[in-house]
Design brief:
By secondary structure, the protein is α/β, with parallel strands linked by helices. About 35% of the residues lie in helices and about 20% in strands. It folds into 2 domains: about 110 residues, Urease, subunit C, domain 1 (Roll), CATH 2.30.40.10; about 300 residues, TIM Barrel, CATH 3.20.20. The longest helix has 20 residues.
């Protein structure tokens, strides 16, 4: 967290979500020691500050929070033989490529994904990393170092797979681990990195991959470990009908029943996708205070189904926004996800089904609740100073009369300025802590090497 005192002033629009429009005009935000000290409109307080940021002709929003990703997948975007695949076929074809990742691949893919997220106005992210071949056994450690260098708030999940093809699962033997190794590594990461304090730059969650790639025992033991150390849990659930069929065949129950059976039906859990719930299951999820990471672009690209957003919200289920892995999206851009979430719901349920402010709240307040980080997601006194500032004086936004509508409906642009914990990490649309051109060059080369290795 920064020890600077910063004043953002003259904001054309400040997204407080406290009124019908969602924003106030001529706003200011005073930041001290990485947290918001004062928020207001008009003339700001006459105080000495280390830095002033003029937000004239600019929109200031809470930093968006990405609740689901697989960052290593940025190395396998738009792979030819999976362009038209559904989830299971897509996984079977890509697992052999992912088996070739090493520490360098994880480092470069993590930074590239974070760079794309940050430049789209995202200040905090999770990542569901569950592939651990022999050359990348310390993948989470590598990711945490990459996040520290680029300056992003990071809540990685220690993913895992314990069922390979020989056990009836989908992944090859080379990327799965035994249960003891998974649990030991999970506990090590919590003890080494997890920071439970408000404003933490690193927290750890536990994330067995999915019902079709781990054992019931691993889900149960993970729940016990998470309870002992008071960390959150994450997994894929109810993403496709194939998953439903698998769970009924193997476990004799639907995915939601399995979730409850292994001790995961509680407020410390957020799920990825959550498309194929029936009415009774949705009610149960709400009663137990679960959260869901909505990944609209990935769901649409893989043809997985339509997310039941209104039903879930009406039942009291918290919803956040996620970009999902960049081999099924294939992007890490939160503005694109805002648009996709809005448009898909309106296509099927009409123009009044979801409002502009609804999707923005999902990407900020809802996402913060998914990660259990209540100090994030809004522009309020006492909250972390994670803010995204967009320049409205651009070709893409020219002629737009509602600033929040402009952000979601008009063509996406890069964030102008991004603050994380009071640190300026993007300035004038450029990352402050890394050389993006060099990163792209190295990342492209690594992607080519990975594909060549898979071809053998």
């Amino acid at each position: 967290m920064s020890d600077k005192k910063i004043l953002i002033h003259n904001a054309e629009a400040l997204a407080t979500f406290e009124n019908e429009s969602g924003y106030v005009r001529d706003g200011y935000v005073l930041i001290e020691n990485g947290f918001i000290k004062e928020v207001g409109t008009g003339t700001p307080p006459d105080v000495s500050v280390d830095e002033m940021i003029d937000a004239s002709d600019k929109l200031v929003i809470p930093g968006m929070i990405n609740t689901h990703h697989h960052m290593y997948q940025t190395l396998t975007r738009a792979v030819p033989d999976v362009l038209d695949s559904g989830l299971f076929d897509w996984l079977v074809k890509l697992y052999p490529r992912w088996a070739g990742i090493d520490d360098e691949a994880i480092y470069l893919s993590t930074q590239l994904a974070m760079a794309e997220l940050m430049l789209s106005g995202c200040t905090a992210t999770t990542d569901h990393h569950y592939v651990f071949p022999q050359r990348a056994l310390q993948g989470i450690d590598v990711q945490i170092e990459a996040a520290k260098e680029i300056g992003m708030r990071f809540h990685p999940t220690r993913g895992s797979m314990s069922l390979s093809v020989k056990d009836g699962g989908l992944p090859p033997d080379s990327v799965v681990q035994d249960e003891d190794t998974i649990l030991d590594e999970s506990e090590r990461l919590i003890k080494q990195y997890h920071d439970p304090n408000p404003g933490a730059m690193v927290r750890i969650a536990l994330a067995p991959c999915s019902p079709f790639s781990v054992t019931r025992s691993l889900m149960e033991e993970t729940a016990k470990l998470a309870k002992t150390h008071q960390v959150r849990m994450h997994t894929h659930l109810a993403e496709t009908h194939d998953e439903d069929d698998f769970c009924v065949e193997v476990y004799g129950m639907r995915p939601t029943d399995l979730l409850e059976d292994v001790g995961w039906m509680n407020e410390g859990v957020w799920l990825a996708h959550g498309i194929h719930f029936n009415g009774e299951e949705i009610k149960r999820l709400g009663q137990n205070d679960l959260s869901i990471a909505h990944c609209p672009s990935s769901n649409a690209r893989l043809g997985s189904g339509l997310f039941p957003l209104k039903k879930l919200l009406d039942a009291g289920v918290n919803v956040g926004l996620g970009v999902d892995g960049s081999a099924s999206n294939d992007a890490s851009n939160m503005i694109l996800e805002l648009r996709q979430a809005l448009f898909l719901q309106r296509v099927f349920h009409g123009p009044e089904a979801v409002q502009i402010t609804d999707v923005l709240k999902i990407a900020t307040q809802g996402s913060a609740a998914c990660l259990g980080q209540s100090e994030l997601g809004s522009i309020e006194v006492g909250k972390a100073a994670d803010l995204a500032i967009f320049d409205l004086n651009t070709m893409e936004y020219s002629g737009a009369h509602d600033p929040l509508g402009a952000l979601v409906l008009c063509a996406p642009t890069r964030v102008d300025t991004l603050l994380i914990g009071g640190n300026v990490v993007v300035k004038d649309q450029q990352l402050c802590n890394i050389d993006l051109d060099t990163l792209i060059q190295k990342h492209r080369q690594k992607a080519k090497e990975l594909m060549e290795m898979a071809r053998g």
